[in-house]
Amino acid sequence: MACALSESAIDPVPITFPARVPDVNLDDRLSSAARMFEGMITGPECIISVKGVLYTGSINGTIFKIEDGVLSKFAQLGPAGCFSMETCGRPLGLHYDETRDRILVADAYLGLFALDLSTGKPTKIFPRDGSKVTLFNALTTLPDGRIVLSESSQKFQLKELIYDFLEGRPTGRLLLIDPDSGEWKVLADNLFFANGVVLHSDGNSVLVAETGNTTIRRVPLNGGPSEVFTDQLPGMPDNLSKSPRGGYWVSLVVSRLPGKTNFYVAVAKYPWIRYLCYKFIPLRLLRSFASLNNRGLIVRIDDSGQIVESLYDPSGNIFNVADVLELDGVLWLGSYYANFVGKFVL
């Protein structure tokens, strides 16, 4: 597995985004979305539906469920009495494993877990050898039960993810895991902050979001070379999910739209500026810079990667949308750090 947190300085390289920012007809109706359970949860990064019940994680390692409009605790990944994300855990990706009727959780610090649907009891299933986890992020399952998991960085842990973006090097990868044997292999590497993962409709490949260079790649499951699925996105992609109306929802956590760009996008071309930021600006302040001008922005793309729908919130009521779950005419919106779950009626 990847090594532990690096103590070395970052070594930035120029970051080149696709030159053209696509023309997108922004629908600003997202500003009407409701903030559900505000103040009761922080960082519901990913939202899934299992048998009519919603599940999501939080920054303190807790998995919550939403049933009949009520938010309640379902599971805890870390030990009782833990006090930090490194020990309590930080669940990022959730996925329902239909082959075994369980919920899988990718925790950025602790590893890959399976949750019993009846009791919420967590069982760690990967890595089994006690290897240090660097930054597990999102996942999906294949029909045969194998798991595809994104490891966003092999150098920086979640608490220092801004350094990964400041450095601009592709240290992310995609892992293919057999949960029965614990065996695994690298499906794709040299990815720019590997993030959301979804099974392509052809069943023979997966899509993975490269947040660091505003691209979604298509990765064959047979080990063949990956290819760009789309780089025509108006922002940096986070999670990916299927829409029941066809295509895939893409959550865009950082905008590239004219007049709506973010600190990270602005300094991408200048490695020396990014190094000075690393050297002289406290990490806490860098994190706040990265969240500036972060309005809610999501797009739906078709099987060829073309944008067919977009929703935007210019007001900032909904911000930092990291995940979209479309269910029964409603979009449930997750976020890496917001203190609510968004709900938008289509």
TrEMBL record:
Keywords from the UniProt entry: Glycoprotein, Phosphoprotein
Assigned protein family: Belongs to the strictosidine synthase family.
CC terms in the record's Gene Ontology section: endomembrane system
Keyword set includes Lipoprotein: no
A Pfam family matched in the record: Str_synth
GO-annotated molecular function: hydrolase activity
Strictosidine synthase conserved region domain: residues covered: 137-218
Record's protein name: Strictosidine synthase conserved region domain-containing protein
Organism: Mesocestoides corti
